[in-house]
Write a structure and sequence with these properties.
389 residues; alpha/beta; Spore Coat Polysaccharide Biosynthesis Protein SpsA, Chain A; seven-stranded mixed β-sheet; elongated
């Protein structure tokens, strides 16, 4: 209410009270009670308005304090779960909510190792962005720079040629083929795309993978080899190399989340198979498949993979519009728009797992050079992370 309106109201009330006092004590008491009732109603209305407005502006979030819950710590190296996430500049905004969702839902923080593979982006700048979003590197989080110097020049050139969809042409899309070199001391990993949230304990997925004896597990797609490949060209090549033809009716798998035995990959030198199919694609006069580098994994692991439960590769839908309450497994924003984009789908529920930026007192911003990140603090706050008032 403006100053003029408050002064006018005060004058009106004082005038009314003067009239009441001249008319007698009964009318004065009635008027006083009316004023009190009006004030009480106004108070209730204001509280209700503020509550609703705050709720609409501030979605419910998972507090960062759950990440340091001392009841979820122990030391059991035998059950260590290694998770790999690959991201470049276009996908780093997916990292904080994904990391937060994994750690918030795990049963034992000490058994989780998250390896962030950075592609075409400086590690120092990624660390700035994570710190800006209340995530710091420690024994749980490790960062590895993927550089294509670990592969030969001709193979590097071949990778740049095979991508039919420009949005998939990131180095990160083929970094998964070289995890055995990037993580030499790791025997088995869960690979998760950065546009994902994990809503169940990641140990459940790890335990499910142990049931299977194959070197690769993933969720089956509703598609098949017949639909995803040009089998009249691919199957003869496969037969010549392995002595068998591809059964086109078999399902292919989703590569947005998978479990991979790196020891098997090393021992059977599967990177050679990856690069064999890569070269065949570049030598062909027309595409041999539809799904870029994912299709290479479909061929390398043909008849060598098992199905994970479908809950580990869900897609967001209208039933998840406001929250993910009761949803198990993981949610994967395959395709565009991503939830962090301006018109991102189902972003309200995704934001539930986004940590507080800049101690909750600012916004994490990208400098003009598009590499450095810094906290732009709200009024009255200062410090690198807006932590001081």
């Amino acid at each position: 209410m403006s100053q003029n309106k408050r002064e006018t109201s005060a004058i009106y009330i004082q005038g009314a009270m003067f009239v009441c006092s001249r008319r007698g004590p009964r009318l004065s008491i009635i008027f006083s009670l009316s004023i009190l009732l009006f004030a009480a109603c106004m108070y209730v209305w204001i509280i209700r308005y503020v509550t609703i407005a705050s709720a609409s502006r501030q979605p419910e979030v998972v507090p960062s304090s759950v990440l340091t819950d001392t009841n979820r710590h122990s030391n059991n190296v035998a059950n260590e779960v290694n998770v790999v996430i690959a991201a470049d500049f276009q996908y780093i905004q997916g990292l904080p909510p994904l990391i937060h969702s994994i750690l918030a839902n795990t049963r034992n923080l000490d058994n989780i190792r998250i390896h962030i593979v950075v592609c075409d982006y400086p590690v120092d700048n990624l660390l700035q962005y994570l710190e800006c979003n209340d995530i710091r590197i420690n024994k749980t989080l490790q960062v590895t720079q993927f550089t294509d110097s670990i592969i030969s020049t001709n193979i590097r050139a071949a990778w740049t040629k095979i991508f039919m969809a420009r949005r998939l042409s990131s180095v990160c899309n083929y970094a998964r083929a070289y995890l055995h070199r990037l993580l030499p001391g790791v025997s088995k990993v869960i690979f998760i795309d950065a546009d994902t949230l994990v809503l169940s304990p990641i140990e459940d997925l790890w335990a499910e993978s142990k049931i299977h004896k194959t070197p690769f597990q993933a969720v089956a797609r509703l598609s098949s080899y017949e639909k995803d490949f040009i089998l009249r060209d691919v199957s003869p090549i496969y037969h010549k190399r392995f002595g068998t033809y591809i059964n086109g009716s078999l399902n292919t798998f989703s590569a947005g989340l998978f479990v991979m035995d790196l020891n098997y990959y090393r021992e059977h030198n599967l990177v050679d198979e990856v690069e064999f199919w890569l070269i065949k694609q570049t030598e062909s006069r027309h595409p041999l498949w539809q799904l870029d580098c994912q299709s290479i994994f479909q061929l390398v692991y043909y008849n060598k993979w098992d199905r994970l439960s479908d809950i580990w590769s869900r897609f967001p839908s209208s039933v998840m519009l406001d929250n993910f309450s009761g949803i198990r497994g993981s949610i994967h924003w395959s395709g565009k728009p991503k939830p962090w984009m301006e018109f991102g789908t189902f972003s309200k529920a995704w934001k539930k797992y986004r940590p507080s930026e800049c101690s909750g007192h600012g916004v994490c911003q990208n400098a003009e050079n598009r590499t450095d990140w810094y906290c732009a603090c709200n009024d009255f706050y200062h410090g690198t992370l807006c932590q001081h008032k």
